[in-house]
What does this fold into?
Amino acid sequence: MPAVLGAVAKMGLTIDHATHTIRLVRDFTAPSAQIFQAWTQPEQIACWWDPSGEPLVECEIDLRPGGAFKFVTRAHPEMPFAGTYREIVRPDRLVFDALGSTGRVLFEESAGETRMIVEIECRSADHLAQFLKMGVDVGTAQTLDNLVAYARSRWG
It folds into this structure.
């Protein structure tokens, strides 16, 4: 595990208390355009988003800066994951606001393979502590593992 000052790291997950950020990394044997589409097409997101592995019961996306998204899971229909897109740069970056935090999804392609970096930047140390207590780090890690499995089943 790399030593990161002010951060706690484990398998593809870093919690940086100094910047109030949860950072996750996953690698894919697929081009960034395909992984970007998996993040932006409702019919694809519905297949992998829920940490439990269940398909989403509702997935709405208005893919433009200022456009909204809403993902509803079977287990928690009363608590949709919803937010607003701030920046969309195909196939390199998505930036959005959700749950009082800023989410960034970065796609770095090299030789047809993609490294995806997901950052959840909380507004304060207390906000980060609340996210960790709710299990956002663990749930997001499972969700991204679902995406890895989904991509593997679709593109090898």
Q: What stands out?
A: DSSP finds four helices and nine strands in the chain. Residues 136-155 form the longest helix (20 residues).
